[in-house]
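Journal club prep — side note

Before the paper discussion, L.F. wants everyone to see what a predicted structure for a comparable chain looks like in token form. Sequence:
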Amino acid sequence: MAKTVMGNLLSQYFDEFRPFRPRTNEAHLATKEEFKRKIRIVAWVWRSVWVLLKDSLRNFQFLLAFQLISHKILRWLAGFFMAAILVSNIFLLDRPYYRFVFVGQAIFYSLAVLGYIQDKKGQRLRRAVNLAYYFCMVNLAAMLGVVKGTLALQKPTWEKVR
């Protein structure tokens, strides 16, 4: 049992708490399953959030409507906005500021690709690589979830995670 405060707290709920587990190929499978889970959650909630938004506006609950738009809808659309910004920057490369921003975007997305490759190989990710990889993975999952939710492509059942 871990001799930490968190370990002692968690020992009430779990038989054994291990604060450190080395990364293996199982970690990549966990990331893959998490990606599928995020797609599934966004796809299911995407359709219901519009019903809730419509009801909140009809009942003059503007704070709830604002919260739905800012905390759910815009967050799930962020990947589309990021893609649009990247494409628009390509057309603005003749201006120095946008060239600088494009280089920053290229570095960030390169770190995300490097994170994907390292995760697939089961290697430990550095902090900046992990941040870029996870950020892009979550936004890509949200994009796919929005598309599946909009087109009603999400199955009513899903595969059980082992």
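L.F.'s comment for the group: Residues 23-150 form one domain. Keep this in mind when we get to the figures.
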